[in-house]
Amino acid sequence: INAEYMGNNKKMEQPQIKLYSYFRSSCSWRVRIALNLKGIKYEYLPIHLVKEGGQQNSEEYKKINPRGHVPALFIDGYTLIESLPIIEYLEETRPEIPLLPKNPRDRAVVRAICEIINAGIQPLQNLSVLQKVE
Known about the structure:
Elements: E1 4-6, E2 18-21, H1 26-37, E3 42-46, H2 59-64, E4 72-75, E5 78-81, H3 83-93, H4 104-121, H5 127-133
Parallel strand pairs: 2-3
Antiparallel strand pairs: 1-3, 2-4, 4-5
Helix pairs in contact: 1-3
């Protein structure tokens, strides 16, 4: 697993936040977008889902995320998995730059759109689903 430093496109010194991600993963995109919108610096650790039989299946990565999925975010001493809970954690622990509107109804609309993408659209193009269909 190779490391690249990211976050606002600037080199950084030993970030405390590590994002295990795949560049083509829409789930990972969501987390990268949230981190960047909030201005949170992080270390990007690429996990290639196809190369070497899928690096997410390696024993090394399964120690980080036993499910073997991306993204995984190491932050505040915890490893979090799944994009929406990661984004909710960022929103709750780093509220200075909010991602959600203040109005509860508007927040509900945003969450509904996120769930449509997360549960309705994204699974159909997920690599694990596509491999079983083929």
